[in-house]
């Protein structure tokens, strides 16, 4: 029997998950599977190429457009909001970032696989791992007149199909268990570990090791970014947690990691790196050309807007990152008024229409 553990990153989903969203109701009662030494967060700790596009089954997916499948996009966003609000409540799941320079993947400046992409991939991966314990998605097929055939699938396999990824789905074995008396004259079905163990083995030894799985997480993270990038408060929470870990890096330890040392100043903080045009434009259009603090119109300044108008929400002096998720647009007055060491994400958003 495989011992199983439930990750606290996967919060209960309000109202369960519909099969169309990749689930089948409320979570099952079988405890989670341990990872037996397998890196649990491969989607983050392994390389994710910044230039990868999810071309599979998505002919109009290119550098300019994104076609949403909305497969658990808002479930992942909800969990991100919990993690951002109270990251240390999830420290068991984020522990790898707090030891052995675990935040090294966030250090290189201005990556297009952003901090938000990496956290979204973590949560999507953890959800798929949870799914191996069931409940599973049931599909019924009419194979011949009056004969219905039932098949069960893992949500991950349905996600592969939704994104057009070439993948042979795993056929979840039929239910295996027995009726047990939970209290006098009340019986209930209790599933054995046989099915969950088979799903667990498939997930970790086949799907997890595949390029298709990396592609899936990349597509899902892209969609989450597209939805969540507007939420400066959430982004500030995630950046604050990572900044805490960066601030604890001992400069002496960087001697043994020259490929990382080049990103750090002598004080152990990240060097200020010129903000690339693609970051400026993305942040500018997210803010609709308005200062995130006071709402001043800066729309006529895009072509000449200096880098000083783009504020690191979590300052570099506090361990902040050179990451698009850590940048907001401020007018000169608000930027000067904001302390170099203050973490103040703008909470003003322009309405889509006037009331």
UniProtKB/TrEMBL annotation:
GO terms for molecular function: endonuclease activity; nucleic acid binding; zinc ion binding. Pfam families: HNH. The keyword Transmembrane does not apply. Keywords: Endonuclease, Hydrolase, Nuclease. SMART domains: HNHc (SM00507). Gene3D superfamilies: 1.10.30.50. CDD domains: HNHc. Residues 278-336 form the HNH nuclease domain. InterPro entries: HNH, HNH_nuc. This is HNH endonuclease. It comes from Nonomuraea diastatica.
């Amino acid at each position: 029997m495989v011992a199983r553990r439930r990750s606290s990153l996967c919060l209960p989903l309000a109202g369960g998950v519909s099969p169309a969203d990749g689930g089948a109701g409320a979570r099952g009662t079988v405890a989670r599977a341990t990872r037996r030494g397998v890196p649990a967060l491969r989607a983050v700790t392994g390389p994710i190429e910044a230039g990868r596009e999810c071309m599979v089954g998505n002919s109009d997916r290119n550098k300019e457009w994104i076609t949403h499948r909305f497969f658990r996009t808002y479930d992942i966003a909800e969990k991100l909001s919990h993690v951002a609000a109270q990251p240390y409540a999830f420290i068991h799941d984020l522990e790898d970032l707090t030891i052995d320079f675990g935040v090294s993947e966030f250090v290189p400046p201005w990556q297009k696989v952003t901090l938000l992409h990496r956290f979204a991939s973590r949560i999507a991966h953890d959800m798929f791992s949870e799914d191996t314990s069931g409940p599973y998605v049931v599909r019924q097929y009419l194979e011949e007149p009056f004969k219905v055939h039932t098949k069960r699938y893992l949500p991950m396999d349905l996600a592969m199909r939704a994104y057009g990824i070439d993948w042979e789905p795993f056929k979840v074995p039929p239910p295996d268990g027995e009726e047990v008396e939970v209290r006098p004259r009340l019986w209930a079905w209790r599933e054995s570990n046989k099915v969950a163990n088979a799903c667990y083995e498939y997930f970790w030894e086949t799907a997890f090791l595949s390029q298709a799985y990396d592609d899936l997480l990349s597509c899902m993270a892209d969609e989450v970014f597209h939805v969540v990038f507007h939420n400066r408060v959430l982004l500030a929470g995630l950046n604050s947690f990572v900044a805490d870990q960066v601030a604890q890096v001992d400069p002496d330890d960087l001697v043994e990691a020259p490929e990382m040392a080049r990103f750090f100043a002598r004080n152990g903080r990240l060097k200020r790196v010129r903000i690339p045009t693609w970051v400026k434009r993305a942040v500018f259009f997210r803010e609709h050309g308005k200062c995130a603090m006071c709402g001043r119109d800066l729309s006529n300044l895009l072509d000449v807007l200096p880098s000083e108008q783009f504020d690191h929400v979590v300052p570099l002096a506090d361990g902040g990152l050179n990451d698009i998720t850590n940048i907001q647009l401020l007018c000169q007055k608000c930027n000067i008024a904001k302390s170099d060491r203050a973490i103040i994400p703008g909470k003003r958003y322009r309405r889509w229409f006037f009331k």
